[in-house]
């Protein structure tokens, strides 16, 4: 199931199972955290001390 299938419309097509909703939350939160850490690490390497 693609994320675009979930966010279309007013949420009528969203997964009904709480486990699926929690799973999407965990996946999106993990990816955003990883992107933040990667950006912070890159900045840390680029900025001289």
Automatic annotation (TrEMBL):
Stored InterPro entries: DUF2474
This protein's UniProt keywords: Membrane, Transmembrane, Transmembrane helix
Spans traversing the lipid bilayer: 22-47
Any Pfam family: DUF2474
Superkingdom: Bacteria
Protein name: DUF2474 domain-containing protein
Provenance organism: Acetobacter senegalensis
């Amino acid at each position: 199931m693609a994320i675009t299938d979930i966010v279309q419309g007013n949420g009528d097509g969203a997964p009904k199972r709480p486990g699926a909703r929690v799973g999407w939350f965990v996946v999106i939160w993990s990816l955003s955290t990883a992107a933040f850490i990667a950006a912070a690490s890159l900045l840390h390497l680029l900025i001289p001390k």
